[in-house]
Amino acid sequence: MLQFQQGDEACFRALVDRYKQRIYAFTYRFLNRSPEAEDIAQEVFVKVYFSRDTYRPTAKFSTWVYVISKNACLQALKKVGSNISINERRSNTDLEMIETIAGSGDDNPSEKLLNEEKSGQIAAAISRLPESQKMAILLKRYDQMSYEEIAEVMNCSVQSVKSLLFRGRSTLKEYLKEYFRED
Amino acid sequence: MDCRKVKELFSDYIDGNLDEIERKALEDHLAACAECRAECDSLLNSWEMLTDFVVPPVGDQFTRQVMQKINDRGSQSVVSGWFSRLFAIFSLRHFPAVPALASLVVLIGIGYFILSGRPGGIAERNGIDSARKLEVVRDIRDEEIIRDLEIYENAEILENLDLLMDLEAVESFEATD
């Protein structure tokens, strides 16, 4: 990042390549598998590019880029209005995906469908969490961030992070209880 | 360790943040308490289940599209850059005292407007001030008259001084008699 700040554009490409999957995964999960998640992830990197002068090496680059991602997601949610409209759009893409899997000639399409269904159940459970709990859960579970890093991204105290994780886990446990009974 | 304390530590336990002693105490409790064990198991299960939330790989064109967006915005900003440079010439950086001076001029203007517009404003007050000046002059004249009168009285006293002294001398003479 420091090299990019000094004008090395190739380093920016390297940063995008290194972080694109992580940032896309975050926006995809946070926005409940919205088809706009990739576009928003791209916007995150555009923002990184144009805000490079505001980055201070005292913060970890990953933390900084997650702060930008968090803001982009919250802004997107605000724009769309609520999670529900994203979910409604998602139901169309679910159907498209099922059609794609069925027509892909894969060895085990039923397993893929099952995995897709599982993902859908978990996504639905996570999307029901309040935004702050959802964010803490995603950063902890999928990005393996420490409490301190999550606190920095979310701009809150470590104690708040612990509390958000505790409540988020308890709520998720209730939402997913029925599902893992079937397993 | 009681059930309440154990439940408080579940999050740290799942995240592996407990030290050896706490972890041992918690696991001992779980071995003995079926309710806490069930709760902990279901928390761990749901946490593990989240692994199944798979994300499709990002599109092949992701980086290219990011660069494209940057280029598009960059060329837009070149056009807007001319305007921003134009504004920058007149920016506060070059004329830092402009806002202060402008505010001062506006304040003076507003003040003059208010005072001159209302009854008893500046125009009328000018008349009052000149009247006051007259009064002051009149006061001075009064003082001069008063002073003159005092001098006159003193002069009268001086004029009759001989007579008064004679009178005092007669009185003193009579008194000694």
Features:
heterodimer; A: mainly alpha; Arc Repressor Mutant, subunit A; 9 helices; B: 177 residues; mainly alpha
Q: Bin the helical content of chain B.
A: over 70%
User: What is the CATH-assigned architecture of chain A?
Assistant: Orthogonal Bundle
Shape of chain A from CA axes? globular
Roughly how many Å is the radius of gyration of chain B?
A: 51 Å
Order of helices and strands of chain B: HHHHHHHH
Structural class of chain B: mainly alpha
What's the topology here?
The complex is a heterodimer of chains A (183) and B (177).
Chain A: H1 2-5, H2 9-30, H3 37-50, H4 61-80, H5 83-103, H6 109-127, H7 131-141, H8 147-154, H9 158-182
Chain B: H1 3-8, H2 10-15, H3 20-32, H4 34-49, H5 62-89, H6 98-117, H7 122-159, H8 161-176
Q: Describe it for me?
A:
The complex is a heterodimer of chains A (183) and B (177). Residues 83-92 of chain A have low confidence and may be disordered. Chain A is built from 9 helices and no strands. Chain A has a single domain, classed as Winged helix-like DNA-binding domain superfamily/Winged helix DNA-binding domain (Arc Repressor Mutant, subunit A), CATH 1.10.10.10. In chain A, α7 packs across α9 (158-182). Chain A has 183 residues and is mostly helical. Chain A is 79% helix and 0% strand. The model of chain B has no long low-confidence stretch (mean pLDDT 77). With 177 residues, chain B is mainly α. Among the domains of chain B are: 3-52, no CATH class; 134-176. The chains are: A mainly alpha (183), B mainly alpha (177). Chain A binds chain B through residues 13, 16-17, 20-21, 24-25, 28-29, 38, 41-43, 45-46, 49-50, 115, 118-119, 122-123, 126, 137, 140-142, 147, 162, 165-166, 169-170, 172-173, 176-177, 179-180, and chain B through 8, 10-12, 14-15, 17, 42-43, 45-47, 49-50, 52-59, 62-63, 65-67, 69-70, 73.
